[in-house]
């Protein structure tokens, strides 16, 4: 993942944050394997149910954000255009809330593991939740962001801020939640 969307420094040391990913597909699922090199992993565990549901700190933690432009003008109840895999948990956050414990979204599966230099994430996403299928489509517009927060606090009492964000397609440093024209395209190769 070659592009930097946000950084407090002009360059990003590969030991601090480097990311690679692969994608595969079959008739039922889209699969991703995402390898993150991160020398200082940052995770905060919610201490209460209220904090878990309402606290936005989950967006400040290390993690991976996947954005899909499925071309659906009106968002259907059981389709997704964004979800987040938060480091240190198997929780999948959809539009900022954990909505995957029951119902159709529970079919999104993810797994993470740590290693000496960082961590790996695997996930599989059912095509029907994306609103597309490779038998009907040539590809899908997509963006992937990797967020690295080393837990550095600017001033006492403040939450730690994001230190680096790397992107797959976007070179404009635009937030993909605001503008899907920056997405790249993944092609369904049948060979």
How would the blueprint of this fold be written?
Elements: E1 3-7, E2 18-25, E3 29-37, H1 49-54, E4 63-69, E5 82-86, E6 92-94, E7 97-98, E8 109-114, E9 118-126, H2 127-130, E10 139-148, E11 164-167, E12 184-187
Antiparallel strand pairs: 1-11, 2-3, 3-9, 4-5, 4-10, 5-6, 6-7, 8-9, 10-11, 10-12
Q: How would you sum up this structure, described in words?
A:
The chain is mostly beta strands. The protein is built from two helices and twelve strands; from the N terminus they run βββαββββββαβββ. It has helices at 49-54, 127-130; strands spanning 3-7, 18-25, 29-37, 63-69, 82-86, 92-94, 97-98, 109-114, 118-126, 139-148, 164-167, 184-187. Strands 1, 4, 5, 6, 7, 10, 11 and 12 form an eight-stranded antiparallel β-sheet that branches. A four-stranded antiparallel β-sheet has the order 2-3-9-8. A hairpin with a 3-residue loop joins β8 and β9 (118-126). The longest helix is centred in the first third of the chain and has 6 residues, at 49-54. The radius of gyration is 17 Å and the shape is globular.
